[in-house]
Automatic annotation (TrEMBL), chain A:
GO terms for molecular function: ATP binding; ATP hydrolysis activity. SUPFAM superfamilies: P-loop containing nucleoside triphosphate hydrolases. This is ABC transporter domain-containing protein. Pfam families: ABC_tran. Keywords: ATP-binding, Nucleotide-binding, Transport. Coiled coil: none annotated. Residues 8-259 form the ABC transporter domain. GO terms for biological process: transmembrane transport.
TrEMBL record, chain B:
It is a multi-pass membrane protein. Belongs to the binding-protein-dependent transport system permease family. It comes from Paenibacillus campinasensis. PROSITE patterns: ABC_TM1. Residues 64-253 form the ABC transmembrane type-1 domain. It comes from the Bacteria. This is ABC transmembrane type-1 domain-containing protein. The lineage of its organism: Bacteria, Bacillati, Bacillota, Bacilli, Bacillales. GO terms for biological process: transmembrane transport. Keywords: Cell membrane, Membrane, Transmembrane, Transmembrane helix, Transport. The chain crosses the membrane at residues 5-23, 67-91, 103-124, 130-150, 185-207, 227-252.
Automatic annotation (TrEMBL), chain C:
Keywords: ATP-binding, Cell membrane, Membrane, Nucleotide-binding, Transport. It is found in: Cell membrane. This is ABC transporter domain-containing protein. Belongs to the ABC transporter superfamily. InterPro entries: AAA+_ATPase, ABC_Ni/Peptide_Import, ABC_transporter-like_ATP-bd, ABC_transporter-like_CS, Oligopep_ABC_C, P-loop_NTPase.
């Protein structure tokens, strides 16, 4: 694209989890979940990551977001390897990459009000300091995700699944991120609500150029939302490319079977 | 809800006993009057007198102090240590974590009373040592509870999210984890208090707790057993008080647990 | 074959019985797959459980009748159901792992199902069980027969469950979200299996799902449930290509599957109502772009559409709406262009908390 | 096989550690056992002599090494008060305690299984509510009080059982069991309350599982459904906590033997504690530790037999 380094660049990432030793004197075994992953996410781009359960797609998302450690040098944020980030650079990365998770209810602390939920990351990032300004920021964020400011004092239990997901998105947006990692973010929602959330995500990219790594098992949703798509199977990305191209001319046998089994 | 109310009522009887014992006892609990031994209930002695003619009610009230302070102190300190150990083990999954939890397993696999007996043998009889014994065997249950909770909470979306926006360890610990764990700790605390009372009374029943002539519920029951052919009603009284305290804490724990479950679903 | 007449269900909520499923009437025929589309709280699972007489304690049938080959099931004593289960009615679950006893080998569970209704010598029973496994598309039946549930994959488990359910070739198989927990590639194979069972064995299948694509793939006939009310029924092509009820139309507009990439999805404003919400009027009125005062006050009855496209079809196209969508000769909805709350307008809709 | 080897290795290590820890603690405790035996007035040379006789004048690590060497060959040292080998004393007292615990466990199962199953099958009904409420109260009755009440009721008021009159098994099984009936009943009642809760909870959990509904809609006969599908699954949970139940039985035995004046291991333990009989106490602690570890090992093996999901080589068993 341009000479600027990509927002996220994953190069040769492999990851395995140690399994508990079967017997003390035998060597520990490892379960390889990711194998030699290459993936880039440009600024303002929505990348779909499609895979079935157990394919390693969530682990990849967690590695990019820093929730799991990756081998040194395999993940770069704007050209700098994650483990080399320090001070302001580290803060910038932590602020710039945010999550939206699958379960809209469990993702919010039930003891918090909507305002507290959204204000906490603002405070953590130190973007806004005055209580009055934080409050205003929360109001603005709620408006951005299509929720009335009257919800500020509500608790998650009083909200529907779709509303909870909106709050979760507002929380993710509160640090003005450059990348949202959406891990099955619409899978648990009712169909009639799913669409509004998908629209919201699309709008965020259009308005604020927020990149997204959209992780899903649902081909239709990915096809609808993503610019580029990567297909992950048993820890390996078997195929990636522009969404339309991949869906029209799948090359890898797994992608073909995945697409042909879509109804 | 019914459980909660019943438990609270039972416990308030015990708490009232404690309060009265602090303010004023009906008569001197250690004043002997052999001529008036095993007197039936009367205006002067509401629950009658024991083998030395001492007022049973006063002794019962005074004994509530040691029973409650010892078990509360023991379970309280056990809870603090256990929760810290469990939380540390949960965070540091490596060697430290497994060493802590294996040690807890060993402690857990030991019969409560045997553990208490060993400690009392080593340290000698007396309230403080009983308290220590209760603390020691309360530790593993709280450690396990906290360990399990910390592991479970790692997968909560809001903990993951807090980690991803780097809320800081203090915020995650004090604003997210501890408030979420409190109801469970409360339940466990209530149940542990029940077994704490049981241990305190069992040890004093075996003559290893509070030493005579100072009254204790267990000690009174032991004395009552020696004289049960003479005064068959006497064993009923201290036994019932112990039962009331244990049942009260158990029901309170069950009640909180049920209410918490309701609130969650 | 199975006739459901004015069946209504109640749920025990806040210490009273509240109406949950409004009276509904339909019939199921042999060799036909009926799909029920519904979001959460639509009552689709309750309906399935009511047909099987396995309602949870907090639910009950309030009125109506369920007749199987003319026999009233609702008045059948509980012990008589044993002979109905497996031979006439069968039921499979969303989660195949949960439906199998983890401590028993697949083969033994299959034999239990077989021997529940027939006295067969052991050797013959094993042979039939192996054949049943083969028929549901298991390529190595001997291995699966000997395996414990945890030793085989999720798709394999669901096949084994189906084998247990259909070993006596029941008249009706109820599949409650039976493919939801499966991966896409496996899902299609299971759906294909349903198609084979219905066409080859003349089995009637009630396929219940929130997955419109899956329902479209297998169903001959579709019923649309929402908030405990039946809103639309008809042949697959009628309901999905020429929906009459605004809810059906809106739902189809909201699914990425039916929409080209790049075009905006028409999300439906508001939230799915709880099943016990029973407004006097149409359940969809609060979210409906076409709702009028009348919709909010009166309950629209189920009527057969006078849509010319359905006249020739054997399956009537019915709907419960005062303002069904009209179409021009090309089958295009004429209503939409004059819609006061177009998708654009809806997008600006901001959700307000309900007044307390 | 290597799993079993690992478990045994860990078990042996654990017994070693416990023996070391308890020996150290007992040796370092204040109070001189020899003085306790002879009284404070005893002439010093006698005290020294006895010390030397028991080897108490040497460094305690050396004493431990001696003890360990003996323990490996089954010699747990000699008791101060009984002037007999500890192993011999334990073996003499074991049959009575074993009888009592087995008798009590069987009684507890006999009470708890039917009630637990009944409550679970009738879950949500008044029967279930009643059983649960009773158990809630019942579980809080201290076993020493219960023992006294039973003693009072059945030896004084209705004299069905003679008080304090233990008959060994060599004098006839009937008389033996008769003499143990009240103490066993006391233990059993306390134990049964816990078991009823456990059986009910685990059976209710199983009955609500999808595979029970599926078994139902397969048209299985009721008996087959409950026995082959429900009961076996519902026993997995309780089996994993047998170890804990044995613990609480041991605690109970110490008290019950005291109340009913029975010459078993529990009484012996109390005597050892009161008299500061170090080697006897050490021997009993080791004996109980070994029992507990063996029970847990058996439970794990049993568990892997019942549940095919648990492989023998799995390091961790499911904790409930």
């Amino acid at each position: 694209m341009s000479s600027n380094p990509p927002l996220i660049e994953v190069k040769g990432l492999s990851k395995s989890f140690a399994l508990p030793r079967p017997v003390l004197w035998k060597p520990a075994q490892a379960l390889q979940v990711l194998r030699d992953i290459h993936l880039t996410i440009q600024e303002g781009e929505i990348v779909g990551l499609v895979g079935e359960s157990g394919s390693g797609k969530s682990t990849l998302g967690e590695c990019i977001g820093g929730l799991q450690t990756a081998p040194p040098g395999t993940i770069k944020f704007r050209g700098t390897a994650l483990e080399q980030l320090q001070g302001a650079g580290l803060k910038e990365y932590q602020r710039s990459v945010q999550y939206v998770f699958q379960d809209p209810v469990e993702t919010l602390n039930p003891r918090y009000t909507v305002e507290q939920i959204i204000a906490e990351p603002i405070r953590a990032a130190g973007l806004v300091k005055q209580p009055k300004d934080i409050r205003e920021a929360v109001e603005q964020l709620l408006q951005d995700v299509g929720l009335d400011a009257a919800y500020m004092k509500s608790r998650p239990a009083q909200l529907s699944g779709g509303q909870c997901q909106r709050v979760a998105i507002a929380r993710a947006l509160s640090t003005k991120p450059a990348l949202l990692i959406c891990d099955e973010a619409v899978s648990a929602l009712d169909l009639s609500v799913q669409a509004t959330i998908l629209n919201l995500l699309g709008e965020l990219r259009r308005k604020y150029r927020i990149s997204q790594l959209f992780i899903s098992h649902d081909l239709h949703v990915v096809k609808y939302l993503a610019d580029r798509v990567a297909v992950i199977h048993q820890g390996t990305i078997v195929e990636s490319g522009h969404t339309e191209h991949v869906f029209k001319h799948p090359e890898h046998a797994y992608t073909q079977s995945l697409i042909s089994s879509a109804l | 809800m019914k459980t909660l109310i019943t438990g609270t009522v039972m416990l308030s009887v015990i708490v009232i006993m404690l309060l009265i014992s602090w303010i004023d006892l009906p008569s001197d609990p250690n004043a002997m009057n052999i001529a008036n031994r095993f007197a039936p209930p009367s205006g002067e002695h509401w629950l009658g007198t024991d083998q030395y003619g001492r007022d049973i009610l006063s002794r019962l009230l005074l004994a509530s102090q040691s029973a409650l302070t010892v078990s509360l102190g023991g379970v309280g300190s056990g809870m603090l240590i256990g929760c810290i150990l469990g939380a540390v083990a949960g965070y540091m999954k490596g060697l430290i974590g497994s060493v802590i939890m294996r040690a807890m397993d060993v402690l857990f696999a030991f019969p409560n009373l045997l553990l208490a007996l060993m400690l009392v043998t080593v340290l000698g009889t007396g309230q403080v040592n009983v308290l220590l014994a209760i603390a020691v065997f309360s530790v593993p249950s709280f450690a396990r509870l906290m360990y399990g909770f910390v592991l479970e909470a790692q997968s909560y979306g809001y903990i993951k999210a807090a980690r991803s926006y780097n809320a800081g360890h203090a915020v995650i610990l004090f604003r997210h984890l501890i408030p979420a764990a409190l109801p469970r700790i409360g339940v466990q605390m209530s149940l542990a208090l029940g077994s704490g009372i049981l241990t305190e009374t069992a040890l004093s029943f075996l003559g290893l707790g509070v030493q005579p002539p100072h009254p204790s519920w267990g000690g009174m029951l032991n004395e009552a057993q020696s004289f049960m052919y003479l005064a068959p009603a006497y064993p009923l009284i201290p036994g019932f008080v112990i039962f009331l305290a244990v049942a009260g804490f158990n029901l309170l724990g069950d009640g909180i647990a049920a209410r918490h479950k309701e609130a969650v679903s | 074959m199975l006739e459901i007449q004015d069946l209504s269900l109640e749920l025990y909520v806040d210490k009273t019985w509240k109406p949950a499923l409004r009276p509904l009437t339909f019939r199921l025929e042999p060799g036909e797959i009926t799909g029920i589309i519904g979001e959460s709280g639509s009552g689709k699972s309750l309906l399935a459980k009511a047909l099987m007489n396995i309602l949870p304690a907090r639910a009950r049938v309030a009125s109506g009748s369920i007749r199987l080959h003319g026999t009233e099931l609702l008045s059948l004593p509980r012990h008589r159901f044993r002979s109905v289960y497996g031979r006439q009615l069968a039921y499979i679950f969303q989660n195949p792992a949960g439906a199998l006893n983890p401590l028993m080998r697949i083969g033994d569970q299959l034999l239990d199902a077989l021997l529940a209704h027939e006295e067969v010598p052991r050797k013959e029973a094993v042979r039939r069980a192996l054949k049943a496994l083969e028929e549901v598309g298991i390529s190595d039946p001997e291995r699966v027969f000997r395996a414990y549930p945890h030793e085989i994959s999720g798709g394999m488990k669901q096949r084994a469950v189906i084998a247990c359910a259909v070993i006596h070739e029941p008249d009706l198989l109820i599949a409650d979200e039976a493919t939801t927990a499966l991966d896409a590639t496996i899902r299609k194979q299971i759906l294909d299996l349903f198609l084979v069972l219905s066409k080859k064995k003349r089995m009637s299948i009630l396929y219940i799902s929130h997955d419109i694509a899956a329902v479209q793939y297998v169903a001959d006939k579709i019923m649309v449930l929402y908030g405990g009310m039946l809103l639309e029924t008809g042949a697959r092509g009628d309901v999905l290509d020429r929906p009459l009820h605004p809810y059906t139309a809106d739902l189809l507009q909201a699914v990425p599957y039916h929409v080209k990439p790049g075009t905006k999805l028409a999300g439906i404003p508001g939230n799915v109502p709880p099943i016990t919400a029973k407004p006097p009027g149409c359940i969809y009125a609060p979210r409906c772009g076409y709702a009028t005062e009348r919709c909010k006050e009166d309950l629209p009855p189920m009527v057969v559409a006078e849509d010319p496209s359905t006249a020739a079809d054997k399956i009537p196209h019915t709907h419960a709406c005062f303002h069904p969508l009209l179409r021009d000769s090309l089958g295009k909805e004429t209503h939409l262009n004059t819609n006061p709350s177009s998708p654009e307008g809806r997008e600006r809709y901001v959700q307000q908390p309900a007044a307390h | 096989m290597s799993y079993l080897a690992q478990r045994l290795l860990i078990a042996i290590l654990l017994v070693f550690l416990v023996s070391f820890a308890s020996f150290a603690v007992l040796m370092l405790l204040p109070g001189d056992p020899v003085r306790l035996m002879l009284g404070t007035e005893a002439p010093p040379h006698l005290v020294e002599e006895l010390r030397a006789q028991y080897g108490l004048d040497r460094p305690w690590l050396l004493q431990y090494a001696d003890w360990l060497a003996g323990a490996v060959s089954g010699n747990l040292g000699e008791s101060f008060i009984y002037k007999m080998p500890v192993t011999q004393i334990i073996v003499d007292r074991l049959p009575m305690t074993l009888s009592l615990t087995i008798f009590a466990s069987l009684m507890a199962l006999l009470i708890a299984l039917p009630l637990g199953i009944w409550a679970a099958v009738k879950r949500g009904s008044w029967v279930d509510g009643f059983i649960q409420a009773v158990v809630q109260i019942w579980i809080a009755i201290p076993n020493f009080w219960l023992g006294i009440l039973l003693l009072l009721g059945f030896t004084v008021m209705i004299p069905l059982f003679p008080p304090g009159n233990f008959v060994p098994i060599s004098e006839g099984l009937g008389a033996h069991l008769h003499s143990l009936f009240l103490p066993a009943l006391t233990l059993a009642i306390a134990e049964a309350a816990v078991l009823i809760r456990m059986f009910r909870a685990s059976l209710v959990e199983v009955l609500n599982k999808d595979f029970m509904t599926f078994a139902h809609t397969k048209g299985l006969p009721t008996r087959k459904k409950y026995i082959r599908y429900a009961l076996r699954n519902s026993l997995i949970g309780p089996i994993t906590v047998i170890g804990l139940q044995v613990m609480s039985l041991i605690s109970g035995v110490i008290i019950i033997e005291q109340i009913f004046n029975l010459p078993g291991l529990g009484r012996l333990l109390l005597i050892a504690v009161q008299q500061r009989d170090l080697f006897l106490l050490q021997g009993l602690v080791i004996f109980i530790t070994v029992t507990v570890i063996l029970v847990n090992l058996c439970v794990d093996l049993l568990y892997t037999r019942i549940d095919p999901r648990i492989q023998l080589h799995a390091t961790k068993r499911r904790t409930t």
